[in-house]
Amino acid sequence: MSRVLIIDDEPGIRNVLKDILEDENYTVFTAEEGLSGLSLVEKESIDLVILDIWLPNMGGIDVLREIKQSHPEVEVIVISGHANIDMAVKAVKLGAFDFLEKPLSMDKVITLVKNALAMEDLKKENRQLKYSLFMEDPLIGSSPAMKKIRTLIDQSAASDARILIMGENGTGKELVAREIHKKSRRCDGPFVTVNCAAIPDTLLESELFGHEKGAFTGAIARRRGKFEMADEGTLFLDEVADMSSSAQAKVLRVIQELKFERIGGEKSISVDVRLIAATNKNIQEEIKKQLFREDLYFRLNVIPIIIPPLRERPEDLRELTNYFMEKFKPQKNSEKRTISNEGMKILEDYTWPGNVRELKNFIERINVMSDEEIISPETAHYLLGEKIKEERSWNLKEFESMKLNEAKDLFEKKLLTLKLSQNNFNISKTAEALGIYPSNLHGKIKKLGIKIQK
């Protein structure tokens, strides 16, 4: 049932509108002035507001502006007993659906309410359509590991249990999260993503919980956070282990209470959100280093899903390759090209440190750079480029004529170069993988003359 809020200081108008709209099977809330009306917009999931322009304490135009800033998806019908063209134009410019003059025609009110709610439904449908159009690729693979993951998705989707997805970069953690959302009872609600590693610590809490106008320098208007945006849907916290300790503490509290305050705000906001988190780090090690809260880990890790790297499920490689070759074929009407058996052998021998994402990019590169109908091993080898050289250049012959220290330096240089490449030349992640401090790694890079790719 659609939920309508009537904000009008005249009890007679409120009661008449409430009775008529309830007869039309709408859930109706009422408020006699702007501030209490805004409070209801915050607390309840309101679909439409019928708003009087002339209100005590806070004028209707200011209420309209506030609603459209904090809840732009909510439609507003403005009414007034002292209407003029300038006021109507101003209201529509601020985002009002329409403007009605008192005394009200109840037939016209009902028609406008239906039209406004139909417009909101169209907007929701449009958002869903965009969501489906920009969905990432489906989960591809028939290996035992992928079958197990699909089983976990089916088992966990029906509940609201929190899920922690673990796996290397490029394995498809967000795809799994989206698949869970798509199969859950929340599938018609929003799927909101937060990349915790991409947002500076100083902005992450604002991103998650929102802020009030003037809460800090640059907060020129109220802003809803991702938790609010995900209400009645799913919030996906990607790279959750990169959160600051302050943000971790607040997320833990929200999980426990399902309510929070915006930065600079005093009002508690309740949300109904399913939480799915993901990380590419060894979270147990992060807990030992006191970089991640153990109590938050236990809260998030109700259902663990571990996605193995591509090198551990080589049986999926050919299926993934065929899918991406079809997706990236140069023209819609052209025949899908294939990779020769010898070319596939090269792909099967490669360890794919970037996992499925790296394979996807490689297949797109093939379809752009090569005109061959059957991709030759030479083309596959050439387009994998330096990466394959790095993997295949590890043999003892080149060390045979060297002194021990010289051989150690060369080996160290090759190992560091490979590890840097596998971690996209991220110093912190490479140092963590090697078990050394970033400052130590910087010193070795300088000493051994290793070039860092940006």
Structural summary, described in words:
The chain has helices spanning 11-23, 34-43, 60-70, 85-93, 106-133, 144-157, 173-182, 201-209, 226-229, 245-257, 283-288, 294-300, 317-327, 341-349, 355-369, 377-384, 386-392, 404-422, 427-434, 438-448; strands at residues 3-7, 27-31, 48-52, 75-80, 98-101, 163-166, 191-195, 234-238, 259-260, 269-270, 274-279, 303-306, 338-339, 374-375. The protein has 454 residues and is of the alpha/beta class. It folds into 4 domains: 3-131, Rossmann fold (3-Layer(aba) Sandwich), CATH 3.40.50.2300; 144-306, P-loop containing nucleotide triphosphate hydrolases (Rossmann fold, 3-Layer(aba) Sandwich); 316-391, Orthogonal Bundle (Helicase, Ruva Protein, domain 3); 397-448, Arc Repressor Mutant, subunit A (Orthogonal Bundle). Strands 2-1-3-4-5 form a 5-stranded parallel β-sheet, sandwiched between helices. A 5-stranded parallel β-sheet has the order 7-8-11-6-12. Strand 3, helix 3 (60-70) and strand 4 (75-80) form a beta-alpha-beta unit.
Low-confidence stretches: none
Structural class: alpha/beta
State the CATH topology of the largest domain.
Answer: Rossmann fold
CATH H-level superfamily title of the largest domain: P-loop containing nucleotide triphosphate hydrolases
How much of the polypeptide forms β-strand, as a percent range?
Answer: 5-15%
Architecture of the largest domain, CATH level 2? Answer: 3-Layer(aba) Sandwich
Termini gap: 53 Å
Alpha plus pi helix count: 20
